[in-house]
Amino acid sequence: MAPAGRKKVLHKIADLIEQYAVELTVLGVRDNGTEFNMALKAEAGSAAGTFRYYAEAIDKIYGEIAPTAPNVLGLVHHAPVGVVGAIVPWNFPLMIGAWKLAPALAAGNSVVLKPAETASLSLLKLAEICSEAGLPDGVLNVVTGAGAVTGEALAMSMDVDVLVFTGSAATGRRLLEYSARSNLKRVYLELGGKSPNVVFADAPDLAQAAKVSAMGIFRNSGQVCVAGSRLLVERSVQDEFVALMAAEAEKLVVGDPLDLGSQIGAVNSPQQLEGNLNFVEKALVEGAELATGGARILQETGGYYMAPTILTGVERDHNVFQNEVFGPVLAVTPFDTEAEAVALANGTDHGLAAGVWTENLSRAHRMIGAIRAGVVHVNTYGGADNTVPLGGVKQSGNGHDKSLHALDKYTDLKTAWIQL
After folding, report:
1. pTM confidence score
2. Which of 35, 43, 190, 248 is catalytic?
3. Are residues 125 and 200 in the same domain?
4. pLDDT (tens digit, 9 = 90+) per residue, 160-203?
5. Quick one: which of 94, 146, 282, 305 could link to 43 by a disulfide (CB 3.0–4.6 Å)?
6. Is 130 a catalytic residue?
7. CA distance 376 to 356
């Protein structure tokens, strides 16, 4: 299909996502417990925007003509890779699914998409939408099943040319092994993080920083890959800032994700809730102190809810400093100097995102350069749109979702060297 034809189909998919936005959002919320108001924007709203972005991009991507001798013509084509396998997580299945699916389809590939076992409903509906929009049969297949069965089969397939994945580091390692055991397919991984949110004493507005930072860790019950789960705060303002953060955390309304009054929804599963609470328990044993939260709440409802939690006195060698909780748990560590802040920020194996709060422009640029992360927010946390890439360094993965750079995963460069 010509790029203009693909563009038309992708726009129609976006139109239908917007038409079915409430249904898609409710399906997702029933699966994963994300609060409805956030999910409406972050799932259906984001997915529609992603399909529109790549619909508009694909007929504006050109090949190249090499600077050759007059009797030679060198052409560089952007060719589709063929078949893309995409494995997506349960926290934002529609948003992340669109990050994989839209650029892959725009580039002219076919896709086999595997949802998480606990969050497939919105992506099955998306498959129906794509068919209704005119996507040819077979170009997209959504296949459910356990990771150890369906995911492994997809990763081991000799007919899959590229595999893209968002999820845990342990699964990412297995996918690399499966690639080596099969056809050496390219594997692009986004493996989460332990993102530092660095607050200097000269932050423009500590109260605003606390409000934004609270949502940066507690939205969706902390089940966000880029969540600012480590608060690194200059010692001179630590007590003031932690108090502001605790006040913000305690104001948040945790409850039924389909209740429009809820600001924070449910934890995804009993296993996830148990893991969150175990992190808190171990942190306290290691010497951290509880500033707020730390317990399961609303147990009488039968749902899996956890109070937004802040732990202070967290040291660099503590488990909760080093490892991703993927829950509403914030670890607080003070620092005295900029150099110490950088060392702490880079003191884990992860490198997905970070935040820096300062009114000193030079310091902001120094921190952007010094922190090893794929995204560094300055005087905000979150909100980056499709115009910029999202990807990690170190053990947070490789490759990028979003922006024109995402197309690199789904195309091969093919050279034509023509003697005239």
Report:
1. 0.96
2. 190
3. no
4. 999 999 999 999 999 999 999 999 999 999 998 999 999 999 99
5. 94
6. no
7. 7
